[in-house]
Design brief:
With 246 residues, this protein is α+β, with helices and mostly antiparallel strands. It has 2 domains: 96 residues, no CATH class; 98 residues, Sandwich (Immunoglobulin-like), CATH 2.60.40. It has 6 helices and 8 strands. It has a 4-stranded antiparallel beta sheet. Strands 5-4-7-8 form a 4-stranded antiparallel beta sheet, with no helix packed on it. The longest helix is centred in the middle third of the chain and has 24 residues.
């Protein structure tokens, strides 16, 4: 039987199945403690929803690339993903939920004991957001429909996209052999037909990063361009990399 109270973290991370989602959404309308926990966890999760890229810790980039290496690569065009492909186990989902709950508890505890120290509270929130971001990445990589696509980067390097329509998001890892010069930055574009939409700008001079792009699986392609620091409203050609998502 489902322990509905334990689904808060998994629900925020979109790591529940349809039955669990319905059960939790019904439960949260009647349970004040779960509703408060849900609001707090969503607020923390929202801190990672901006479009900026950060330099990934070496451990995170290593773990992401290792997970991608274990993930089924894009099948031939005529083949669909096997119906027997294993879905993430319930244990995996509950582990993600527990991790998110522990991160939130740690941040909340820090706030309580250092209520007058704004800097400590901010640092705690940033740490919690980073942990949730890692959990979101793992949830995308563990999705049953995740597909991995790679492309070379102009001048050397590789961009890898692990996308899941079920999660409506993708993990993008970019590693260029040559970082942009001073005053320049790589920018990602979600391309629908012939229309590009900004998907995030890396920091000036940054040559490698891992990020989450929400809604990317519905796009036709992902493009990478070299732009002035801070990014551009329209892509500057030529493309430094392009990956078809269809």
């Amino acid at each position: 039987m489902i322990d509905v109270h334990s689904l808060v973290g998994a629900y925020v991370l979109d790591a529940v199945d349809d039955l669990e989602r319905v059960a939790f959404e019904r439960h949260v309308t009647e349970c004040e403690s779960c509703r408060l926990e849900l609001d707090e966890l969503r607020e923390t999760s929202a801190r990672m929803a901006d479009s900026t890229w950060s330099v990934p810790p070496p451990r995170l980039r290593t773990e992401v690339m290792a997970a991608i290496g274990r993930t089924r690569q894009l099948p031939p065009a005529e083949s669909a993903a096997p119906a027997t492909q294993a879905r993430p186990s319930r244990v995996r989902r509950l582990t993600l939920a527990a991790a998110a709950a522990l991160v939130l508890a740690a941040g909340t505890g820090t706030t309580v004991y250092a209520i007058q120290d704004q800097r400590v509270r901010d640092q705690s929130a940033v740490a919690a957001a980073a942990q949730l971001r890692e959990a979101r990445i793992q949830a995308i990589l563990a999705a049953p429909d995740v597909l991995v696509r790679t492309s070379s980067v102009r001048g050397g390097g590789k961009v890898t996209v692990a996308s899941s329509a079920a999660r409506n998001a993708a993990v993008v890892s970019l590693g260029a052999d040559h970082a942009p010069g001073a005053g320049q930055a790589f920018q990602m574009w979600s391309i629908h037909g012939t229309t590009p939409t900004d998907a995030g700008v890396m920091a000036a001079g940054q040559g490698s990063a891992v990020t989450i792009v929400e809604g990317l699986p519905s796009s036709d392609a992902l493009g990478v361009t070299l732009e002035p620091a801070g990014g551009s409203a329209e892509p500057t050609l030529p493309l430094y990399a392009q990956i078809s998502l269809k």
